């Protein structure tokens, strides 16, 4: 087995090296040593453990019209002249950089003159050189903070720019989504008798009232067969992902807000504002949040690493909890388990070469399709429009299942190709065959997709699987045979029928 990853933080190479190995046959990912990074005792918040993002300023400056139109199409919350501001700042940065380099080169030349005049005991020449050195020093002291200030301003401006958009992605709001395919059985007519909250209360599957006392609204206890269903769905989705070569990972539920930001989420909203969409942890030493999705810790585990080209693609499937503050009024569209503050989620994540990411997206879509087909649910795949892509996605598919109790389609999974948006921010790179001394590495592409969002799948299975007797009374729930091998038992009731 060969080493395929190296940490790239400052300091001793031995101190920061992280080794990831892949078996040539199975390509199983095994982490054998963690990265170590130098850190300050002061521990300011937020801590920057990963180097500053490396964004494509030249690409923005050379494509102002496209970038501006793209941001407008995506309803990005940035000023209309943002690209022009980036271009101006980039020009200023290059000017300051060249001026600073010129002064540093001049300092070396003058230093050599001072040394030589001292050896020759030429006091007059030495005094002239020392005077020049003082002026150069003053100029360097002026240029260095100016360069840093422009660099920080440029980075802040560019970080707000969204990813490019795939030419096939439709433009406009959610209603402009294009249906790519439909799957599964015929749709069951919408009826309130199939409402998942009604079914859950009938069979004692969910306790919303107890959770409201313990935590608050939009929290819940899964009980009896619903708890077993969560475990079965989790293991079912994991088993399919592992069969397709994904390495299983259990992820931390707490992440640095800086890592979330680099993945395209915006945790730095005012935590006291009702608009804040994440849960902030009150910590004096670090800026920590509860992770909104396993995509964040999965992407973070590859941060600041360099892989060999032969090691790609890297495929991991994460099991974790997702936490969503989700401010706003609740109604029929969000009742019950449909929009909750915490849920179990199985997440697919890939790191690929740029030229492979579109094919890998279709491969991941096939895995998601297989998972839903195995559950016997009616679902459709949508190509999401520009206003639904967020900051990081180049292209995004959503999969929606018909939920007859809600009388509507409901999103149960999504799939995004983020191209190099995340890798430039997280410093995920690989050594290319065409590498040169000036460009030894390139940024990877990253993709993420939902294998199973448990509460939404439970809704779909309850509402599509509810069974009634001849009098129309609810008597049980039909579940797909695909889940039976993962059902651990524990209930003496006979409300579950396998089909």
Automatic annotation (TrEMBL):
The keyword Protein biosynthesis does not apply. The record marks 450 as: Important for serine binding. ATP binds at residues 324-326, 340-343, 411-414. Keywords: Aminoacyl-tRNA synthetase, ATP-binding, Ligase, Nucleotide-binding. One of its GO terms (biological process) is seryl-tRNA aminoacylation. L-serine binds at residues 293, 324, 347, 448. Residues 195-480 form the Aminoacyl-transfer RNA synthetases class-II family profile domain. This is serine--tRNA ligase.
């Amino acid at each position: 087995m060969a080493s395929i990853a190296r940490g790239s933080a400052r300091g001793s190479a031995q101190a920061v090296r992280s080794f990831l190995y892949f078996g040539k046959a199975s390509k199983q990912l095994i982490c054998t040593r963690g990265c170590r990074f130098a850190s300050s005792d002061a521990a300011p918040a937020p801590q920057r453990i990963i180097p500053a993002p490396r964004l494509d300023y030249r690409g923005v400056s050379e494509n102002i019209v496209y970038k501006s139109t793209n941001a407008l199409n995506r309803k990005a919350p940035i000023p209309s002249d943002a690209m022009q501001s980036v271009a101006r700042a980039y020009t200023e940065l290059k000017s300051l950089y060249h001026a600073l380099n010129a002064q540093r080169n001049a300092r070396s030349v003058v230093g050599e003159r001072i040394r030589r005049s001292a050896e020759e005991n030429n006091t007059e020449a030495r005094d002239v050189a020392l005077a020049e050195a003082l002026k150069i020093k003053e100029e360097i002291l002026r240029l260095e903070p100016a360069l840093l200030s422009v660099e920080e301003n440029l980075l802040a401006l560019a970080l707000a720019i969204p990813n490019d958009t795939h030419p096939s992605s439709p433009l406009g709001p959610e209603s402009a989504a294009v249906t790519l395919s439909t799957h599964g059985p015929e749709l069951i007519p919408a009826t309130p008798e199939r409402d998942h909250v009604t079914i859950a209360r009938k069979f004692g599957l969910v306790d919303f009232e107890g959770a409201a006392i313990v935590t608050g609204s939009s929290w819940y206890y899964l009980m009896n067969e619903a708890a077993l269903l969560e475990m079965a769905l989790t293991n079912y989705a994991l088993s399919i992902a592992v069969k397709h070569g994904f390495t299983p990972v259990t992820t931390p539920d707490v992440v640095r807000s800086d890592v979330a930001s680099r993945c395209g989420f915006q945790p730095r909203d005012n935590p006291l504002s009702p608009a804040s969409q994440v849960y902030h942890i009150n910590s004096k030493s670090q800026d920590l949040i509860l992770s909104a999705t396993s995509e964040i810790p999965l992407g973070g585990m590859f941060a600041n690493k360099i892989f060999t080209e032969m090691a790609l693609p890297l495929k991991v499937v994460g099991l974790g909890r997702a936490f969503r503050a989700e401010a706003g009024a609740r109604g029929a569209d969000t009742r019950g388990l449909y929009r909750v503050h915490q849920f179990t989620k199985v997440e697919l994540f890939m790191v690929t070469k740029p030229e492979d990411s579109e094919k890998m997206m279709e491969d991941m879509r096939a895995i998601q399709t297989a998972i839903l087909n195995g559950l016997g649910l009616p679902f459709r795949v949508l190509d999401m429009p520009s206003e639904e892509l967020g900051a990081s996605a180049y292209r995004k598919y959503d999969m929606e299942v018909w939920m007859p109790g809600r009388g509507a389609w409901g999103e149960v999974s999504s799939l995004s190709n983020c191209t190099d948006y995340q890798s430039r921010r997280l410093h995920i790179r690989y050594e290319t065959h065409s590498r040169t001394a000036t460009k030894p590495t390139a940024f990877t592409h990253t993709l993420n997709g939902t294998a199973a969002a448990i509460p939404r799948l439970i809704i779909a299975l309850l509402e599509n699987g509810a069974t009634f007797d001849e009098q129309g009374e609810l008597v049980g729930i039909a579940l797909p045979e695909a889940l039976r091998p993962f059902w651990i038992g524990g209930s003496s009731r006979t409300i579950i029928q396998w089909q």
